[in-house]
Amino acid sequence: MTLTPLYMLLGAFFAMVAWRAVRDQGGPARRARGAFYGVLGLLFVLGDWLPPVLAGVLVLLIAVIAGFALPQQAPRSATVEATASPSKRLLLPVLAVPLLTILLSVLFLRITPAGTPLFTSQSAPLYALAIACALALTLALWLTRDHTGAALARGGDLLEVIGWAAFLPLLLAVLGTLFAQAGVGVALADLIGSWLPLDQRWVAILAYGLGMALLTMAMGNAFAAFPVIAGGIGLPYLVSVHGADPAPLAAIGMLCGYCGTLMTPMAANFNLVPVALLELRDRNAVIRAQVPTALPLLAGNLVLLGLLCFR
Amino acid sequence: MSAPWSWALLPILVVIIGFALRQHPARVVLVAAISAGAVGGMRWDEFLAALGASFLKARYLLVLVFALPVVAQVEAFGLRELSRRLIAGWRGASTGRLLLGYLFVRQIAAALGLTSLGGHAQMVRPLVAPMAEAAAEQRDPAISPEEREQVRALSAATDNVGLFFGEDLFLAFGAVLLMQSFLAENGIELSPIHIALWGIPTAVLAFVIHATRLLWRDRRRVSGPRA
After folding, report:
1. What is the pTM of this model?
2. What ipTM is given for this predicted complex?
């Protein structure tokens, strides 16, 4: 099953946010907000039928609107007056989302009508999350005796609080693809390789571990960095020249990359989206909270590389 | 020892300089994307098609939006206030101990492949951050707004650390399979378990380092100078 139905639902939600933004009397930058969510709605609803070049034009358009026209601050605060003594049952919908997601994704992978699985290992958790959220929303509406429209409007306001940060992970995924096509990572690995005496074992270990962390920081994704650094430094120098054990080399190298992920704004969904969600004023607050864990851990990984790859 | 300058390095420089100058991330991405297209020798239509195709392929990143109406609805009826009250009823609660418990659960669950148990929109904003903030408030009623924001940021950081250094132990996780297929392409045949097991020392180290920081934070709060 393709993801198209999920994307169409999301697109319809973005269209609703656009419509509410345009009609937001007295709100800031109504036209920019309306255009931003309207174009996103278009990309999500019609994405599977749009010619790639036209989709590219629309992507450029939302990047320009996000960078130059959207207000930096959320138009409406999502913080609302709490009732005097909220019921503990309000916890149920929130806890239902992860639990139902796990349950349903296990279940979905077992649905195999006529022997062919209905969902892939990528689509099953996504459908599971969407359906878990729908069930949890039904529960929440029943507990609060409210109607669907009100909840969707509140969800739309919350999306506007996150604002452009919610869509940054997509733009960065685009950038990662362009980086790969332009050979950015390979050029960086060449640069490291030509500068450093990699025939020294400890220099090669440092170049490999730090290279993974730095390239991950530049590209925002350890998966994109791994083939470049492992192929440029790990295999030709550490394995072939120095005789490293490839299993710990790969595993710990990838985790050096994860230390980089903790320290870069390029990993927007982990480091910038929560800044918006938690309404923090310092855009680097989450990264700042992570660096004191990431740096000692990276140093520890370099030691582990030296110890475990050469036993 | 002259380094080979390659124009392919230009997009990385754009990203580094852009973020260092604290430019708007969307503008940084825009300029970096155009420079990557230029040094990659793409024609305009190729560039736009690559832009469109990769954006459409990455749309799955936004499924977390499905959780927003649920979270917004229960928040409107006082969920965050409830999270605070739950902490107020627990004597001896502290930000560090609370986040330590969350780190442990998040990391173990992720190692078992249960990565959806957590997340910034579903768990951190409605539950973990308000609880951590309430615990900090309980210890120090005169807590400054800056410290409140630090506590919230630390909650998000704890979610990330638990996820990253738990999920890599899961055999069917993408990173493990990526490493296995990369090594296989290069003539090194290894089973996923052989690779995943080597993630354990780092996972333990990550837990120890982050847990130490969390508990250290509590100590500093208790023994620190008071106005």
Report:
1. 0.86
2. 0.87
